[in-house]
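Final report, closing paragraph on structural work. Over the funding period we assembled a curated collection of sequence-structure pairs, and we close with a single example.
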Amino acid sequence: MRDAGKIVAMAHQEIADAVAVGVSTQMLDQIAEDFIVSQGATPSFKGYGGFPASICTSVNEVVVHGIPSSLKILEDGDIISVDIGAVINGYHGDAAMTHPVGDISEQAQTLLKVTEESLYKGIEQAVIGNRLSDISYAIQSYVESNQFSVVRRFCGHGIGRAMHEEPQIPNFGRPGHGPRLKAGICLAIEPMVNMGTFEVTVLEDKWTTVTKDAALSAHFEHSVVVTEEGPLILTEI
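Its predicted structure, as stored:
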């Protein structure tokens, strides 16, 4: 899990260095795939349920599962959420980041800041003895205190030998519910936060998911293991 997480983290660094005005999302996909393969790993997403690319590139109102394309060129003021997964020696890592492209609005800057901070609020609750929904509540309460909304339709998940394992981790809910966390549990915690309504629509390609009101959306994710010393983030460099 550490090896997979490190590869995902380094792939994100490659993408962060490449995001710029004029770059296509397909180019970002190729950069990530080439790097993952160079490390002896395999992109987790490619072919998963028929997904046609190695990473998800979700621009502006696209919440998740955006498909990279040579026709989608990044423009000044865009935000792009990039979700990357890799598997090596039978174990997966999974993480997402949202990047500004050029100069973005103050509102967009705040959206990115709050979404990333909400991820760490959730991670803080990934400790032995807590309930799963303590993570959910920490994320939702922080996001909504900043006047944004959390997506209900998609959630975080367990991760290990499969990319998506039980338990599911909603980004909303009351505290004190669900399984009690124990050492060794691996979780992919991933708030998806919208500037407007939490409602989303899945487009005809069956993957691309957009905000129902066309407002901006941001997405941050880390793979985390619950340990005796507290939460350990596996997808940080």
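The first helix runs from residue 2 to 18. The chain has four helices and 15 strands. We thank the funder for supporting this effort.
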